[in-house]
Specification:
- By secondary structure, the chain is mainly alpha-helical.
- The chain contains 2 helices and no strands.
Length: 91
C-alpha cells in the first residue's frame, strides 16, 4: 500500500487495521429511559437553524478580523467612559 503524497503520516492506518464504524447516536441509558431530557436546547428546524449558522459564521469571521478588534476596543472604551460618568454622578 503506497502512502498518499499529501497525507499526514500520523493519520495513516496500519494496513492490517480494521475499520470500526461508530454509530452516530448512542443507545439510551437504561437508567434514564422514559424520562424527559434535561439540559441543552431542543433542535431547531428551518429558519432558526439557518440564522444560528449565519450567526456562528459571522462570529467566527469577526474573531479573525481586525474589525472585531475595533468593535471590542470601542466597547471597552465606551464602558470605561460610562463608568467614569457613573462615578461622577454618584460621587
Amino acid at each position: 500500500m503506497q502512502p498518499d503524497p499529501g497525507s499526514n503520516s500520523a493519520l495513516r492506518r496500519h494496513p492490517g487495521a480494521r475499520r470500526v464504524d461508530i454509530p452516530a447516536v448512542s443507545p439510551p441509558d437504561s437508567r434514564t429511559a422514559g424520562q424527559p431530557r434535561t439540559g441543552g436546547s431542543p433542535r431547531l428546524a428551518g429558519p432558526g437553524r439557518v440564522f444560528l449558522a449565519r450567526l456562528r459564521a459571522t462570529a467566527h469571521w469577526l474573531e479573525n478580523s481586525w474589525l472585531g478588534d475595533l468593535i471590542g476596543a470601542a466597547c471597552l472604551f465606551a464602558t470605561a467612559y460610562l463608568l467614569l460618568i457613573a462615578a461622577a454622578v454618584l460621587g
